[in-house]
Write a sequence for this structure.
């Protein structure tokens, strides 16, 4: 399974209209890239820690991870009762970024992630489909889905699993919506995301499903780690396995 876990899907160039943070509603171009078919697992992250001791929970510096980092692991090299094929969680952005770099990859950008995540099994953009958004919202109501094994959710149009239904995922620019226009030229602060009431009045399921993702990302800092937050890698060019 390990070789399969490292497989990547080719994501063809295209454009999409971001649901939040855009100055205008013009489409954003996403250039072709590769994305991991599955999130990184406990087993894979253990292999990484064996080679990179400075990222073990007893050794990682506080500026790179908070106290919740790998909190469910028994010790530096033991993830306890967790399933080896479940997504690793409780990992900071710094650790996720380092893991991808060691694989010759990188974290996906937020636009890349959203572009892939808007697909269901048959459509590149399924965001207007009621059943698709109901599926996403039903996951938000479930607990401990991070204990599930990778690859048990639907395979989307691109051949990617677990974009919804398993864990939240880090992106390289996870909080870019809250940066100034100078930092992210096509984005500006979306003040609605600071106010939970903005979602209460959202009659559009698509709007609410997206709101939850953007609001969660906006609450994060790079050293944070939570039990339901994992990651997967991306690559601009075809990676060597």
């Amino acid at each position: 399974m390990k070789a399969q876990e490292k497989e990547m899907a080719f994501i063809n160039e295209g454009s999409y209209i971001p649901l939040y943070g855009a100055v205008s509603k013009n489409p954003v171009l996403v250039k072709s890239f590769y994305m991991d078919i599955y999130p990184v697992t406990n087993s894979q992250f253990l292999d990484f820690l064996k080679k990179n001791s400075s990222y073990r929970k007893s050794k990682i510096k506080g500026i790179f991870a908070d106290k919740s980092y790998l909190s469910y692991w028994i010790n530096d090299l033991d993830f306890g009762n967790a399933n080896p094929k479940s997504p690793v969680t409780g990992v900071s952005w710094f650790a996720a970024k380092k893991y991808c770099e060691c694989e010759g990859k990188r974290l996906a950008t937020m636009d890349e992630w959203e572009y892939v995540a808007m697909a269901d099994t048959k459509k590149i953009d399924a965001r207007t489909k009621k059943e698709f958004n109901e599926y996403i919202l039903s996951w938000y109501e479930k607990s401990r889905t991070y204990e599930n094994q990778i690859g048990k959710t639907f395979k989307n149009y691109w051949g990617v699993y677990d974009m919804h239904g398993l864990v939240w995922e880090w992106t390289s620019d996870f909080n870019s919506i809250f940066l100034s226009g100078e930092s992210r030229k096509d984005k500006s602060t979306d003040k609605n995301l600071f106010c939970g009431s903005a979602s209460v009045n959202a009659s559009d399921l698509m709007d609410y499903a997206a709101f939850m993702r953007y609001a969660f990302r906006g609450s994060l800092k790079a050293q944070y780690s939570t039990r339901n937050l994992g990651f997967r890698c991306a690559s601009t060019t075809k990676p060597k396995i």
Observations:
- DSSP finds seven helices and eight strands in the chain.
- The first helix runs from residue 2 to 5.
- Confidence is low (pLDDT under 50) at residues 179-203.
- Residues 113 and 171 are 7 Å apart (CA to CA).
